[in-house]
Write a structure and sequence with these properties.
mainly alpha; Fumarase C, Chain B, domain 1; Fumarase C, Chain A, domain 2; Ribonucleotide Reductase Protein R1, domain 1; two-stranded antiparallel ribbon; two-stranded parallel sheet; binds arginine
Length: about 450
């Protein structure tokens, strides 16, 4: 197949080089963005009198036909034509003859590919933001449902203080809110039109880039053509935002894995979201959660891959940049899949409320309440901490729980302790009293629920 750039060459490209340099096998998924970009470009060229209006019409008609062929699977992609841009351009020339050969006026594949990737990422980030919102909504429903479910809160994976399950769930809603905001922010820097920068330095032809921006719905136009064809910051940022979001999903997935163990017994995953073992008949494995955790490695890898591709590149476009697409596509696909499967899994997950509640008060989890009780009796906190530590040690030695101690036992550690100590050993009381802003008290949890309901509506 004749290449659009073959004029300067005497010999044809070797087959191994064609196989090595092609990107059509994966960049074909940019077809829609490539065609939309070309349609806008053709309109602009005609409007500016750079090409005849009739040629623009047949270009646009031809491109629309190609879109239909690709959609229906009839289009034949060729790796001899390297990439999506040349595949479509060659098909257009075949359809329209001379008209199609005018499309690439005042354009280069360098600004074309930058445009396609930006259009693609704008679309993807829009989808990801919707999926994040959907997941937040599912979590918010769970938070509302479990407004009175107590559980042990952990630090160092040791029981720390009793908390509301709602509060724990809302921590993820809060994390996801930042993830969403990060994508929205990245969107601003992605929403910049590179088309019209041409190969590196612009063009001698009287183009209208404002018109292109309007047609393709870009908020801004790139102001430096060298930067525009060589910049992939927006893609790196996308991979960064995705990595942070995946890290959050992975932490959640890890908790689901832990919580579904017999040791924790906090949740039961539905049969539809677990798998069995080929040898151990009793097993029900949390593979979906494990795979979300596992796929996070690849997402981080994709970020490092593109950063590494970019770090040694001289300005401006270099073919290395073709390596931007696989990590970007893989991250988009993976994050999309993880967000939606997690959402589905959560709707089918059952919390063992009784088990959570019964463990909430175990492990001396109200010890901090005793220390703060002593502070209220005017004992300096460090001293209160020491006294409470001694009480706990005494309980451990005697295999007793805090609420089984008698008043005289308590008083042997500090004379300021009186009968009212017993009211605060109940985890429900402990939770209710943590009413500082952002704390786990039901009133504070309700405040968060109200806030997110407003944000997500
Ligand atoms: N397939 C190429 C890429 O992904 C398109 C741009 C090629 N430009 C060039 N001058 N060879 O980056």
């Amino acid at each position: 197949m004749k290449k659009p750039w073959s004029g300067r060459f005497r010999q044809r490209t070797s087959e191994s080089v064609e196989a090595f340099t092609e990107s059509i096998s994966y960049d074909k998924r940019l077809w829609k963005h490539d065609i939309n970009g070309s349609i806008a470009h053709a309109k602009m060229l005609a409007k500016q009198g750079i090409i005849p209006a009739r040629d623009a019409e047949s270009i646009i008609k031809g491109l629309k036909e190609i879109a239909t062929e690709i959609k229906s699977g009839k289009f034949r992609f060729s790796s001899q034509l390297e990439d999506i841009h040349m595949n479509i351009e060659a098909a257009l020339a075949k359809k329209t003859g001379p008209a199609g050969k005018r499309l690439h006026t005042a354009r280069s594949r360098n600004d074309q590919v930058a445009l396609d990737l930006r259009l693609y990422l704008k679309e993807v980030m829009g989808e990801l933001i919707s999926l994040i919102i959907k997941l937040q909504k599912t979590l918010l429903l769970l938070a509302e449902e479990h407004i009175s479910t107590m559980m042990p809160g952990y630090t160092h994976l040791q029981r720390a203080q009793p908390v509301l399950l709602s509060h724990h769930i809302l921590a993820y809603v809060t994390m996801l809110q930042r993830d969403r905001n990060r994508f929205e922010d990245c969107m601003k820097r992605t929403d910049v039109l590179p088309l019209g920068s041409c190969a590196i330095s612009g063009t001698t032809l009287p183009t209208d880039r404002q018109f292109l921006a309007k047609e393709l719905e870009f908020r801004e136009i790139s102001g430096n053509s060298i930067d525009a064809v060589s910049d992939r910051d927006f893609a790196i940022e996308f991979l960064g935002c995705s990595s942070i979001a995946m890290m959050h999903l992975s932490r959640f997935a890890e908790e689901i894995v832990l919580w579904s163990t017999e040791e924790f017994g906090f949740v039961e995953l539905s049969d539809t979201f677990t798998t069995g073992s080929s040898i151990m008949p009793q097993k029900k494995n949390p593979d979906v959660a494990e795979l979300i955790r596992g796929k996070t490695g690849r997402i981080f890898g994709n970020l490092i891959a593109l950063l590494t591709v970019m770090k040694g590149l001289p300005l401006s476009y270099n073919r290395d940049l073709q390596e931007d697409k696989l990590p970007v596509f893989d991250t988009a696909d993976t994050l999309r899949a993880c967000l939606s499967v997690l959402n589905e899994m959560l709707s089918e997950m059952r919390f063992d409320v009784k088990r959570m509640r019964s463990t909430a008060g175990e492990g001396y989890s109200t010890a901090t309440d005793i220390a703060e009780y002593l502070v209220k009796k005017n004992i300096p906190f460090r001293e209160a901490h020491e006294i409470t530590g001694k009480i706990v040690l005494y309980c451990i030695a005697g295999e007793k729980s805090l609420d089984s101690l008698s008043l005289s036992e308590f008083r042997s550690f500090s004379p300021v302790i009186s009968k009212d100590i017993f009211t605060l050993l109940d985890p429900a009381v402990s939770i209710k009293s943590r009413s500082s802003f952002g704390g786990t008290s039901p009133s504070e949890v309700r405040r968060q629920i109200k806030l997110f309901k407003k944000i997500l509506s």
